[in-house]
Write a structure and sequence with these properties.
Aspartate Aminotransferase, domain 1; 2 domains; 7-stranded mixed sheet
Length: 368
């Protein structure tokens, strides 16, 4: 297949990657940084790869303004792996701080605003039976129009956090349900930081998989852990990036001796390499401010086309729409299997020209 044969990938994950990065990675598969060894063959302990890893970490730290109080970690697996790993590590931290804690007073608060946070809470309950108590700080379905759907961010006053929890968890962007926390601190749909317990070193955990590196992270320094699967905005599936406050990097073996379950971990070299190339390129293009503005333009023009189609009632013919889009070289538009429909994912590597292409197709579809 030549470059000309490539289609536009609107998939929700694994998502599109910049062509220039793919071409550079192709060379690295044969010869990584002049070593004569391909990136998929090289040791993660080699000085060449360690130098690349250091650069990658520094690029992330600079672009996201990560303070020195937090480490950046690169782990295997997708974001859902952290449903377990974060819980295990945070319970280990809590047990070291409170050696005599019981299951009743080891509390995990979950903000449930969509499918992903619901799954995270379910995994926490499964994993911590007899070790901790998982409670729901707020459930957005209660405030839905039909009392069932995840279609809103509840009012701030409805968030009820425990006085001293071991975990406070939220998912910043629920892509399956189309719900996200606003980044304007004054917006009603922003995360209610003012409702959090008045205590230092809060155990605040956020899943940023769907918006990582596309805009700044509000109050990053106030989080204990931020994690993001790379396969949305910056890399292949199989890599998760974590930003972890120093006090949360604990001796899990010591915690296990006090009754906390032990976690497991090892780095994924190839996905780290591709993601590192993407973040390097982002810095060269202007970093997060550039992508935040670009993504805003992309979404505004796409939503305008969607609203027009809704008013005309023509976007209900899903099968016909998807077949026509694929014939025009656009794939990855089928909605999540749990909700169906159509979704157009506008992650960082989807260009403005790509968005113009699908809007032109949507307009043509409406006319026909």
């Amino acid at each position: 297949m030549s470059v000309a044969d490539r289609v536009v990938n609107f998939g929700a994950g694994p998502s599109a990657l910049p062509l220039t990065v793919l071409e550079e990675a192709q060379k690295g598969l044969i010869n990584f940084n002049g070593t004569g060894i391909g990136i998929a063959e090289i040791s993660h302990r080699s000085k060449e790869f360690q130098a690349f890893l250091t650069e990658f970490e520094q690029n992330l730290r600079t672009q996201l303004e990560v303070p020195s109080t937090h480490r950046i970690l690169f782990t295997q697996g997708g974001g859902t792996t952290q449903f377990s790993a974060v819980v295990l590590n945070m319970i280990a931290r809590h047990r070291l701080l409170h050696p005599n804690a019981t299951a009743e007073n080891t509390v995990l608060d979950y903000v449930v605003t969509g499918s992903w946070s619901k799954k995270a809470a379910e995994e926490a309950r499964r994993l911590t039976a007899g070790v901790a108590t998982v409670r729901t700080a707020v459930d957005a379905r209660v405030y839905a129009k039909d009392g069932k759907a995840f279609d809103n961010i509840p009012p701030h006053a409805e968030f009820a956090f425990s006085p001293a929890p071991a975990v406070i968890y939220y998912c910043e962007n629920e892509t399956v349900d189309g719900v996200e926390f606003a980044h304007d601190a004054g917006a009603p749909a922003s995360f209610p930081f003012a409702r959090l317990p008045a205590a230092p070193l809060l155990p605040l955990v956020a899943d940023y998989s769907s918006s990582f590196m596309c805009r700044p992270i509000p109050r990053l320094a106030d989080h204990a852990v931020i994690y993001a699967g790379a396969q949305k905005n910056i890399g292949p599936a199989g890599l998760t990036i974590l930003i972890v406050r120093e006090d949360c990097v604990v001796d899990v073996d010591a915690a296990a001796r006090l009754g906390a379950p032990p976690p497991v971990q090892h780095p994924a070299v190839l996905p780290i390499y591709v993601a590192g190339l993407v973040v390097r390129r982002m810095g060269e293009q202007g970093g997060i401010p550039y992508y935040e503005a670009l993504n805003r333009r992309k979404s505004q023009k796409l939503y305008a086309a969607i609203h027009e189609g809704e008013q005309n009632g023509v976007f209900r013919r899903k099968k016909r729409f998807l077949e026509g889009a694929e014939a025009e070289g656009m794939k990855g538009l089928k909605g999540h299997r749990s909700v169906g429909g159509i979704r157009v994912s506008l992650y960082n590597a989807v260009t403005e020209e790509d968005v113009d292409k699908i809007i032109a197709y949507m307009n043509s579809f409406m006319q026909k």
